[in-house]
Amino acid sequence: MFSALFIEKGEAGQSVSLAHRDEAQLPEGNVTLEVEYSTLNYKDALAITGKSPIVRKFPMIPGIDLAGVVTESSHADWSPGDRAVLNGWGVGESHWGGLGQRARLDGDWLVPLPEVFTSRQAMAIGTAGYTAALCVNALLAHGLTPDQGEVLVTGATGGVGSVAVALLAASGFTVAAATGKTTEVDYLQGLGAATVVDRAELAEKGKALQKERWAGVVDAAGSHTLANACAQTRYGGAVAACGLAQGMDFGGTVAPFILRGVTLFGIDSVMAPKARRAEAWARLAADLEPEVLESITQEVALPEAIDAAHRLMDGAVRGRIVVDVNR
Ligand SMILES: NC(=O)c1ccc[n+]([C@@H]2O[C@H](COP(=O)([O-])OP(=O)(O)OC[C@H]3O[C@@H](n4cnc5c(N)ncnc54)[C@H](OP(=O)(O)O)[C@@H]3O)[C@@H](O)[C@H]2O)c1
């Protein structure tokens, strides 16, 4: 038997609780793992609170991320005892996910746990941190260099934002961190932000073209924030858009793209190809200091993840939450 969070759907709507199942009930897959740690991302919070239709099959074990040890495998790349990390691929949405003590899935979805990280550290990074690395890699591949000017990170105290600030600072960029938590200036400066911007300055509909300020942007907010960020990006600069914390809408104009040659990169972590995942994890392994990672991380036990998901949805969480699924 193993324990997991289960989201069920009944006539009265969705409910979530800790429950126990036999391993024989795990879904199809060629690799079985003992999960050591999982985490809570924005998407997990949406799934657990039922605020968005993330879950496509019921009952579902949520958790789009997991790190653990392979116990059984018929996949050529994986043997019992290997440590692996899973991010995305629809796990926790349409395939039982990481917020439980066991998982069975397709070995093609797994990446080796980087040697420099423990399972807990890999989950402190999670999809949020790996997406931040995808964003930073997109900007660097565009040719962004520190001498070109300031880089803006929105949703800066969130999971994606915290890791993006730390990675950009580690690469020598001057980082401006936009946040609604203006009491967290010390936290953001500790991660390497040079300036802190009140996110209210970016939150309302603005002009099509605004004063050129940013050489690059990592945006976790979407909506007017993304439109304003594009309108404030310097000639030839780039914006990596990965989130919708403010909203799914994008009320901008094409002016920044056709008059300033600004590039808008769309960043998806769920179906990202293996090579791009490996590059993202390599950047995290090289540039994310363990002390910085610890400073953004808090831990909860499996049953506590339900309350924590509500706090995350309320925007009350700073940084990342790891979940010890065996506690
Ligand atoms: N594309 C992908 O594959 C992918 C992968 C991971 C995450 N995401 C998306 O990226 C976003 C961030 O994820 P996360 O895990 O970092 O979530 P998170 O930890 O909850 O952080 C989101 C942050 O956004 C900021 N925020 C909240 N409401 C806002 C608003 N109305 N306007 C502007 N900013 C607001 C807050 O930071 P401040 O208080 O500092 O402003 C909040 O902490 C989410 O929308 C998530 O769905 C996408």
Describe the overall structure:
This protein has 327 residues and is an alpha/beta fold. It contains ten helices and 15 strands. Strands 3, 4, 5, 6, 7, 14 and 15 form a seven-stranded mixed beta sheet that branches. Strands 10-9-8-11-12-13 form a six-stranded parallel beta sheet, sandwiched between helices. Strand 12, helix 7 and strand 13 form a beta-alpha-beta unit. Helix 1 (42-49) packs across helix 10 (305-313) and helix 2 packs across helix 3 (159-170). The longest helix has 24 residues, at 119-142. It is globular, with a radius of gyration of 20 Å. The mean pLDDT is 97. Bound molecules: NADP nicotinamide-adenine-dinucleotide phosphate (NAP). The site of NADP nicotinamide-adenine-dinucleotide phosphate (NAP) has 33 residues, from helix 1, helix 2 and helix 3.
Order of helices and strands: EEEHEEEEHEHEHEHEHEHEHHEHE
Calculate Rg over CA atoms.
20 Å
Q: How does the helix and strand content classify structurally?
A: alpha/beta
Question: Beta fraction of the residues?
Answer: 25-35%
> Which kinds of small molecule does this entry bind, naming each only once?
NADP nicotinamide-adenine-dinucleotide phosphate
Gap between N and C termini, in Å?
15 Å
* Poorly predicted parts: none
> What percentage of residues falls in helices of 4 or more residues?
25-40%
> How many strand segments?
15
Cα shape: globular
Largest sheet: 7 strands, mixed
Number of helices: 10
User: What's the rounded overall pLDDT mean?
Assistant: 97
